[in-house]
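The protein record minuted underneath.
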Amino acid sequence: MIQLCAIPANLSETNINHNSVTLSWDDTNNSGNYEIQFGISNFILGSGTILNSDKKSITISNLEPNTSYDYYVLSHCDVNNSSMVSSVKTFTTATPPVSTEFRATLSEMNLYIGQLKNLEPNDKTFEYELTSSLFTDYAYKQRLIALPPGTSMTFTGNGLPDFPDDTVISKTFYYNTDDRNESAGKTIIETRLLILKNGIWEMANYKWNSEQTEATLDYEGGNIAINYINIDGDSKNVNYKIPTNQDCFTCHTNADVVYPIGPKLRSMNFIVNSVNQLQQLTNRDLLTGLNDPATVAVLPNWQDQSNTLNQRARAYFDINCAHCHSSGGSCDERSALELKYETEFENTGIAISKGAIKGYTSFYNPGVSMPLIGTSMVHQEGYALIEAYVNSL
């Protein structure tokens, strides 16, 4: 009588990453000959990939990231005696690591999972928001930061934290088809990236294709015609300008050093999804050295009518103008303005320049009106705020 070949038991998975896994099991037969069958979850037994092992474990490579797989194991006790297949086990591969080198396409950067157009962030990133954001022809923006595994940002004050090398910061610009109904879809235009390499920030831009399936590395910029319906139901046309790489340097350089503009701690110090955003980062061990977000200043929301006119206008200047109109900025030598929010009013130059400020923001003329780059129209709500503010001085 042939002895029953026992079914492998206690199947387990270890060393799961984005493209490989090690499978193990127990076997009372000690047969030393096993057949493993695996495939995308819910595959039909017999249609999967079959591998063999002479040990009670196997490492499988070349798997798809962020994907669930089923697997079975059977034992070959001898040529004519095999066990029944084990019960099914399931594992899910991890999301891939975010690339810390610029790739030819955005999908290769691994900032997103699933279909690229869905802008679903890789769980190795965190999405953040700003109290006041830069005006870019009414485009929406999604902001992400990816830190190298096991690292964190370090609190240094109200401004930018210290970022570890290989930090990736992205900002994706898009328009809803209809602002009254976000489910109607969107048109994604560009994704701008900053990567910190050996203490120096490097920049690149990715231009999305019309099919919204991919974005490719692009340094030349260009113009894209956009049509959308705003929240009031009005049809709007925008001749959106994607910046050149030199345009990026113009705004992101201070005293010949490239740096991020947006993710200052004072601009992220507010409630998002019912929890203070800085506290969220601390809770996830992504920000260290900060004991209490209440000790960090807050850049006011320029759209919040509960803030004073002075607070709103100064916040608007800070996020839209101060990166150029400040000491070391690109407009430092041709302007006396110092528009950082924390600058004392008497040192800003606003009072003596109020006529010019109102004048240069009241019309759009490329290379003349303010801001010099990054827009193709007057920001009506922003100008109304600036006008009211300078008229009050």
Q: What stands out?
A: The two ends are 103 Å apart (CA to CA). The domain at 9-92 is CATH 2.60.40.10 (Immunoglobulin-like). The longest strand covers residues 186-197.
